[in-house]
């Protein structure tokens, strides 16, 4: 089994440090930027977050298919990292640019730039995530690599979250509009340098044969025919989530019933009767570890996304110190780096499944305890919040290493390994969860009457901010812990599969 050199783990970590200048960093301030600087209403911003996530349902899956079928001298996944980086940096700047437009024009601009940013992020991050699955065939090395990755991710987030408020104030000289734009110039330049280092220092080693008896154009055409499997559930969930009315609930029930019947029909077909895309879907739908991880990705991202999405509001209005939000982000991310790096040794001691469950429960309990924080008491929030974050940092580290296990399981069970598709679905549910989390923050605030342009609405919205900081995200953590109880792969089973796959590849080299 392949042991990775230290420099390669660090180089891989640089890629997620760069990506999280956007994902965990800049986007943490996007909601408050939209409502308090750009001038969108909380309800309009919530719908924006939800609609954009619908596009991710298509682009992530397509990107996973494209990456799986890419063949260059640099590999399948690494080239996409470098090709997409300039566009990711460009849209990072554009999304925080505030043109002088009408209310409708601003909303259209927000949709264009946000969709552009998520598309560029998809083209970059789906192959980057899948790269972990082909750098080594050792599951413990993947866990270690995932720890390095998320240490890098948290460092990238730390830089943006910790310094954005101060840079906005310093570079804008009191003008938040220009401050945000100039700050993103700095971060976009850093992003490009880090991505290049990640591309240059990593290597793809696993190249199992992937069943692809049609060309990519035919596969994409086939995918288009099957898009209802992706779009309709998301559309139904979005309508139910946003409107919470009887008609939206009925639509959701009808769609999910139809989906269940269609899936049963699909699973009853023989492999010879299925197209390439349908075979990929059947492989995923019969992959129990992947299905459970799919739910875990959504629930844990809701847990983390809600907490991070409300912090800027919480410190601005409940604690009473807007700039302290940056210090809190720094505290969280320093603890997160420690948590990510502790994941590998803790998983060897407890087992990954047990560690995942324990982390979910403890992080949920500490998060719920924030409900009793006295108004203005930052010390209590820092101590309890950072305690929760140590365990929360373990979640994504385990999640992405275990996605590699589900790719192993698919190859072991079916003789087919679509690593890019498996990881694209994983990144998709995380981005979907992040979108729903951001929308839920805004929906709750809107339900409490919050209007960023009307200071008279702040007092009534404070109870909503307390719940969003505590028991609302904690509920998702506890739900995820219950789901993880059903995860079927033990560490011993994973090692057995890994050994059998290595022998198969030796017996049948591609």
Automatic annotation (TrEMBL):
Q: What organism is the protein native to?
A: Psychrosphaera aquimarina
**One Pfam family, short name:** MFS_2
Identification of the protein by name: MFS transporter
The UniProt similarity line reads: Belongs to the sodium:galactoside symporter (TC 2.A.2) family.
Keyword Coiled coil listed? The answer is no
The record's SUPFAM superfamilies line, in alphabetical order, gives:
MFS general substrate transporter
Provide the transmembrane region boundaries. Answer: 38-56, 77-96, 108-126, 147-164, 184-202, 223-243, 249-267, 288-306, 326-343, 355-373, 379-400, 421-448, 468-487
Kinase as UniProt keyword: no
Keyword field? Membrane, Transmembrane, Transmembrane helix
Q: Which Gene3D superfamilies match?
A: MFS general substrate transporter like domains
């Amino acid at each position: 089994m392949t042991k990775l050199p230290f420099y390669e783990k660090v180089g891989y970590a640089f890629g997620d440090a760069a990506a999280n200048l956007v994902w965990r960093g800049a986007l943490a301030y996007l909601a408050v930027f939209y409502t308090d600087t750009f001038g969108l209403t909380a309800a309009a911003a919530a719908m924006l977050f939800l609609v954009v996530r619908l596009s991710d349902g298509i682009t992530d899956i397509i990107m996973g298919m494209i990456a799986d079928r890419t063949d260059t001298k640099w590999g399948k996944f690494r080239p996409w990292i470098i090709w997409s980086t300039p566009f990711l940096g460009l849209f990072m700047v554009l999304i925080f640019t505030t043109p002088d437009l009408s209310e409708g024009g601003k909303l259209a601009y927000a949709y264009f730039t946000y969709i552009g940013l998520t598309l560029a992020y998809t083209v970059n991050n789906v192959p980057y995530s899948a790269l972990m699955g082909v750098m080594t065939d050792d599951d413990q090395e993947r866990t270690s690599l995932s720890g390095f990755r998320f240490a890098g991710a948290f460092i990238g987030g730390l830089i943006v979250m910790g310094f954005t408020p101060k840079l906005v104030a310093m570079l804008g000289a009191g003008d938040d509009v220009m401050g945000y734009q100039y700050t993103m110039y700095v971060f976009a330049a850093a992003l490009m340098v880090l991505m290049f280092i990640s591309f240059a220092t990593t290597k793809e080693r696993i190249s199992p044969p992937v069943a692809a008896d049609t060309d990519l154009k035919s596969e994409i055409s086939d995918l288009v025919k099957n898009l209802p499997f992706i779009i309709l559930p998301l559309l139904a969930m979005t309508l139910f989530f946003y409107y919470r009315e009887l008609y939206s609930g009925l639509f959701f029930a009808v769609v999910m019933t139809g989906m269940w019947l269609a899936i049963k029909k699909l699973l009853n077909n023989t492999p010879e009767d299925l197209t390439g895309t349908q075979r990929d879907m059947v492989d995923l739908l019969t992959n129990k570890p992947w299905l459970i991880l799919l739910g875990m990705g959504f629930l844990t991202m809701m847990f983390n996304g809600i907490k991070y999405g409300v912090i800027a509001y919480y410190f601005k209005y409940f604690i009473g110190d807007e700039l302290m939000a940056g210090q809190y982000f720094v505290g969280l991310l320093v603890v997160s780096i420690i948590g990510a790096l502790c994941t590998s040794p803790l998983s060897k001691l407890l087992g990954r499944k047990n560690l995942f469950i324990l982390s979910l429960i403890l992080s949920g309990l500490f998060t719920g305890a924030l409900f009793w924080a006295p108004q203005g008491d930052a010390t209590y929030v820092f101590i309890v919040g950072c305690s929760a974050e140590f365990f929360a940092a373990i979640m994504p580290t385990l999640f992405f290493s275990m996605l590699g296990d589900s790719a192993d399981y698919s190859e072991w069970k079916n003789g087919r390994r679509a690593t890019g598709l498996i990881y694209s679905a994983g990144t998709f549910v995380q981005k979907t969860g992040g979108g729903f989390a951001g929308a839920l923050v805004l929906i709750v605030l809107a339900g409490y009457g919050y209007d960023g342009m009307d200071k008279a609405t702040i007092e009534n919205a404070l109870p909503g901010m307390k719940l969003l900081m505590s028991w609302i995200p904690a509920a998702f953590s506890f739900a995820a812990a219950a789901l993880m109880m059903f995860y079927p792969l033990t560490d011993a089973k994973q090692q057995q599969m890994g050994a059998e796959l290595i022998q198969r590849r030796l017996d049948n080299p591609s």
